[in-house]
Structures are given as C-alpha cells and as structure tokens.
Amino acid sequence: MTLYGEKTPPADDRPTVQVTAVTWPDDRPEPATTPAADEPEASPSRPRRMRMLLATGVTGGVLAAVAGAGAWAYAGDVPRGTSVLGTELGGRSRADADRELRAELDRRAAALAGPLKITVDGRSAEINPADVGLAVDVPATVAAAAAADAHAVSRLVGSRTVDPVVTVDVDRLDEALRKVLGDKAQGMTMPAITYQGTTPKVVQPKPGLALEPQRSAEVVRAGWLAGTAVTVPLVERHPATTPEELDRLVTELAKPAVAAPVTLRTDKGSVKVPPAAIAKSLRFTADKAGKLTPSVDVKQLRAALGDDLATIEVPPKNATMTISGGRPTTTDGRPGQQLDTATLGQDLLAVLPKADGREVTGELKPTPPELTAEKLSGLGIKERVSTFTTRFTGGMASSRSQNIATIARQVDGTVVLPGKTFSLNGHTGERGYAQGYRDAPVILGGKLVPGVGGGTSQFTTTLFNATYYAGLEDVEHKPHSYWFDRYPAVIESTIFWPDLDFKFRNNTEYGLLIDTSYTSSTITVSIWSTKIYDSVKTEYGPRRNITAPKLIHLQPGPSCIATNGINGFTQDAFRVIKKGGAVVKREKFTWRYDAEPRYVCGPKPS
To answer: Taking the domain 243-376, which CATH number applies?
Structure first.
C-alpha cells in the first residue's frame, strides 16, 4: 500500500521491520534444495512465515484471554474468589462488600453477643464480649479483603479467605481475666534491699506466672470468632534484676554505703552523715518489671540528720496572722538558707560505693517562705465566720486542762489554704510527755484510765464544731464511744495518736485562719475567712435504741476511775446550710453511743 507523500518502494517485498520467527516444537529444518527456475525464490520461506503468523496469533489469543480473565478477576474493589466468614465478597465494590459483611454479622449476632467461656489457670468463667470491646472492624476487614494478592496469577483461578479484623479493649480484657484468676496468680517476687539498722537485708528475685495482655487478647479474639471456649495461658515472667545483679548491688553499693560516714561540706560548715542516716535514706526501688534502682531520699536524709542541719541552715519563717482588736493582723515572715536538694541525692549516691574520698559539697540557697505577707493578705481572711465554745472543770491546775491549753496553743494561728486538708495529728505530731502533755483520763478498752494527752478530745470536738458551723467539708472524724454531756450529741469527735485523727478540707476559694483561746473553764475555736453562707444549723432527730448502763466492779488502785454510768442511744443530726435564703445542703450525721458502765472501784458486796 502506498501512503501519500512517500516514495514507491522497490520491487523487493521484504518487510521493512525484521521479525525473528518463533520455532515451534514440530518445526524441522527444510532440506537444502535448489528452486526451479519458474518457482519464486521466496516460496520455501512461506510455510515458516505462516507458522510464525499462526504462533503470533495464538500468543495474542492467549494474552487476550488472560487479559479478559484478569479483567474478570479484578472486577470490583474486592478480587473475585475472596471470602470472609464464609461470605463471598469478591467482585464487589467496597460499599457492597461492607453491606454484605454487616449482613453476615447480623446473622451471627446472637452467637457473637453470647457469653464467652474462658478458663484461666483452671478457673472458669464467662465474660460478656461487649464488656471487653470484642467486635469485628468491618471497614478494616473490607480493606484487607480488597488488598492486592501478592501472587496475581492465583487470583485468576484460585480463591482466598481473609480473616476478619477483630478489635478488643486489651486493658478491660486484662482486668476481667484478673478477676477470674483472683489470688491464684503467682506474682513475681521482686528483688529488694532494705536495712535492719545498718545491715543490708536481701530478698532474692523469683519468677512468677502472670497474664500477658497482648497474648490473652490474641487467643480471646480467635476463640470468640470460632465460638469455642478459650483457655487463656499464663506466662512465666522473671524480674528484670537477676540474682547476680542483686548480689553485685549489695557488694558494690549497699554494704560500702554504710561502712563509714560521709562528710557534707558547705560554706557555713560541715556535717557528718552517719551510716545510720545513710541506711534510712538509701532506697532500692523496684519498678513493675522488677528493675531495682538505687536512690537517696533527701527528705528522709534531712529527717535522719535532724538538729544537725541547724548548725548550717536557717529555716524560712512564714508570714503569720493574729486577731488583734477584733480584726486580722498580718506579720511578715523571713527567708532562710537551706541545702539545695536538686543534686545532693545524686552527689551522695556517687560517693557511697567508695572507701575513700567520702565527701560531698552542699550548696546553701536562699529559701523564701511558703507563705508571704502579700499572699496571706490576698486570701480573703477578713471576718469571723464561725465560733464554738465548750466548758471543762478543774481549772487550769488540772492536767486535763493543761493538755487542752497545750494543743490549743499548737493550733492557734494556723492558716489553711483553699482546697487543702487539715489533719490535727499531722499538725501536732505525737502528743507525748516530750511535747508537754500530761497524764489525764482517756477512754481505753471501754473504760476511763490515766493516759498521756487526756483532754485533747475536748479540743478536737471544739475544733470540729467550729469547722462544722463554718460549712467546711468533713473528711475524717469519729465520735466518742460514750456520750458526755459537755459535748453536743453526734456532732463531736475524739482523737488518739496515731490511729484516730480529725481532718477537714477547706472547700472554699478563700484561705482560713484557726483562732483559739481559752480560760480556766472554757476552750473556744473560731474560724476566720470570708462568709459565704447565710446560716449553718443542726436539726436533731429523736434518740432511739436507748440502753441502760451496767454495774461493774473494778480492782481499786491508781488506774481505776469511778463513773456514774451513761445511757447509750442512737441519734441523727442534720447539718442544714442556707445561702441566698434557700437550703443549699442538708447532711445527715448518725452515731450509736454505747452505754458507759457504772464503774465502782471495789469488790462486789458480799
């Protein structure tokens, strides 16, 4: 064929583009012959050309068939032959596959929502799949089904099954399994180094059997889909610190640490840190994996050194507030100089393994008071919001009255910041002879006996009522076992070091000041702050379940205190708080008083 614009080719009909013929298996070489004069020269090559064209045609047909099959196999977003949960999703769009899979899940809904039977270390139980977040993630499953197969040819003639993507809340599942396991879990024995005096005491690490959350989730996913009971395995876990590492810590640190004192040098002088103080402050702490890490607790170190630090430190003094002339008056505090604890612990830890050169340098830094006059003046402490008084007998000459006065002086002028909780035990510490307290009657074992600090419960009751009528939050209090008429029923509190405490929280946005005062027969506690309530009152319910006291004879002697006996009863008290003319809070307090026996110091009459 001639194309316009091209020259007519010569009489040679050979193709312009040279093609290499395909040799078929039945091709055999032609015998070498001389063509006849009247036979065209190209005749011998014609059969080969025909075979070549035939081969080309067959190949093209195969390729066309493959292409057709490929187009069929890849029709839709999900390749044909792909199934999930026995449902054919192949050839569908993602949206259709999503709908079809959801329909299949709806058909299985009852089975999948039913309780799953599990066994952990021989203990069996059932868990609700929804409670632990077991579900099929349909979009993620469809995405996995639509993903291209790595072996494209297998998609033309084969099939494949795609597992559903199952989600589970690993933390909630682990919590549920731990409840099934109960106390049967064999936890790891964590390594430990402590001191008895200055002698290191060691606890060797031991492996334990425990749940492994990810592995638990894996077996629960599979069992849930299969609808079979699941046995959750326990995995042996070893503490991260090995026995060899523990022994090395003892040899290289714990023992040499307390072999000699350490000298702490400062610009104001030196302090010896004795082995006993080192033993109290050197900590070996194990994390959840059982990794033991040494550190120095600087707070414990300061407590262990006690008054020795007074030779080099000047403690800061907070601003104070007193009531003068019926109004609060502020006195500014002063800064101090104390050891910088930021690096002291690490510096001390570095020299403890050494036999020589056991010295550290401490830096004294200015320490501002926690409460300045400016901050104190801005707390809104401006008026008395409540006050309460109780009476006592014996005058100030009695030990009980002296104890009341002593604790009142310790608490007087205390400022409680907004949101903070006040603890009476925490504020005063132990109330013993060293702190100025004396023996006076206390209730112990159901009877009055002499005991150090007797009378402090009366102060506690007075303080409790002052905070009660200020509308402050009651955190912890305990009424007496017996009711004494010097206290209001139910609304009173005892205290005993260190087991019984009184605590309240300043649940206002203002600071508050505790102001105490006493006479020879009264103790008064007032709360100063900003008044936020119209009134706080108490409404009592009737006494019920009244019981009479028993008569008990005791051995005469110094420990016997005679009593007249008091009835026991149960009563309710309601704290009613009003603001803006309306009741904003009504709280119920209930207490059951035992009948205090009538104790007689002497034998029963014959």
So the answer is: 3.10.20
Q: Residue ranges of the domains in the chain?
A: 43-73, 74-193+204-239, 243-376, 392-601
pTM (predicted TM-score): 0.57
The secondary structure of 73-113 as a DSSP string is: HT-SSSPTTEEETTEE-TT--HHHHHHHHHHHHHHTHHHHH
- Which is nearest to 198 in space by CA: 259, 134, 263, 120? 259
Of residues 263, 266, 265, 264, the one with CA closest to residue 364:
266
Report yes or no: 102 and 139 within 8 Å, Cβ to Cβ.
Answer: no
Domain 74-193+204-239 of CATH type 1.10.260? no
Tokens of 374: 């400016």
Provide the 8-state DSSP code for 435. Answer: G
Q: Do domains 74-193+204-239 and 243-376 have the same CATH topology?
A: yes
pLDDT digits (tens, 9 = 90+) for 524-571: 999 999 999 999 999 999 999 999 988 878 878 877 777 777 899 999
The per-residue pLDDT for range 338-347, each reduced to its tens digit, is 999 888 999 9
Query: In terms of Cα–Cα distance, which of 306, 304, 325, 327 is closest to 315?
Result: 306
The residue written with tokens 């056991």 in the block is 358
Starting at the edge strand found earlier in the chain, the sheet holding 359-361 runs 269-273, 262-266, 359-361
Give the integer Cα–Cα distance in Å for 197 and 202: 14
